[in-house]
Amino acid sequence: MQIYLPIAEVSVNAYLLLGLGGLVGILSGMFGVGGGFLITPLLFFVGIPPAVAVATSANQIVASSVSGLFAHLKRKNVDLRMGGVLLAGGLLGAALGVVIFNWLKQLGQVDLLVNLCYVVFLGSIGSLMFVESLRAIRRQGKTGAVRKRNQRGWVHVLPIKMRFRTSGLYISVIPPVLVGFFVGVLSAIMGVGGGFIMVPAMIYLLHMPTKVVIGTSLFQIIFVAAFTTFLHAVTNHTVDVALALFLLIGGVIGAQFGTRIGARMKAEQLRILLALLVLSVCGKLALDLFLPPSEIYSVEDLL
């Protein structure tokens, strides 16, 4: 069943969009990521213009993240105080990211920037997560238990400390604010929730427990993605409501299944699966950058 998307100005199979939304919802519930790092490139592959894909993906992320968050709240795996600190930085970063996005769109360079950002960040984060996860699994196999990471670091010597009881931490609020700010910028430019960067940062930089990280990440993603969608809709008019609706329906349903799957898996298994997924998407995007397009020339309305 083909549907016409008025803002994207293309026709796409409705069941394909539902499937994409469901897949991203599953990932959201399993890994604590909004899924934008996957849904945005996939929308590129099915013919959605990058500007529309970025803005609309942020809208879909909200629904799948809300669905996953409720499931984690029931398990008390959400650090609301930490989520609030991350959110403060995220909203500021999202506002700056939309300004940068609009500037690049005027220059006609936004498509290239979005693709390059995906290749660089997905490749870097995916590689680091994969290597660390393999080491953790090997240590578990040798000793029968994963060795506890060093809980002291530079984040503990910075000023303006706050106690985060759910995470069992007493650290400076500066690192969480900076992480949230950086993720907010990426959310606006790349159409992602930023979970693929936030989750590793919360685990390896802030030393939060993995189970708490997932729910807390979803909490922050909801508000940053909603704010980003609003800014894109007001300034760019690139949010396709019809496209978002199909992605939302699939995402809400998929998130419930993803949460159940994630609850049955070990933390190291979750991290290595997320790393493999990130690297797979990165490889596909990098390949597309080097391969010549099927249609070298395109006709654009310059009026």
UniProtKB/TrEMBL annotation:
Principal place of residence: membrane
Subcellular location: Cell membrane; Membrane
Transmembrane segments: 12-39, 85-104, 110-132, 179-205, 212-235, 241-258
Keywords of this entry: Cell membrane, Membrane, Transmembrane, Transmembrane helix
UniProt-listed Pfam families: TauE
Membrane topology: Multi-pass membrane protein
Lineage top rank: taxon: Bacteria
UniProt-listed InterPro entries: TM_pro_TauE-like (IPR002781), TSUP/Inactive_protease-like (IPR051598)
Cellular-component GO terms for this entry: plasma membrane
Transmembrane among keywords: yes
Family (UniProt): Belongs to the 4-toluene sulfonate uptake permease (TSUP) (TC 2.A.102) family.
Protein name per its UniProtKB record: Probable membrane transporter protein
Organism the protein comes from: Pseudooceanicola algae
Organism taxonomic ancestry: Bacteria, Pseudomonadati, Pseudomonadota, Alphaproteobacteria, Rhodobacterales
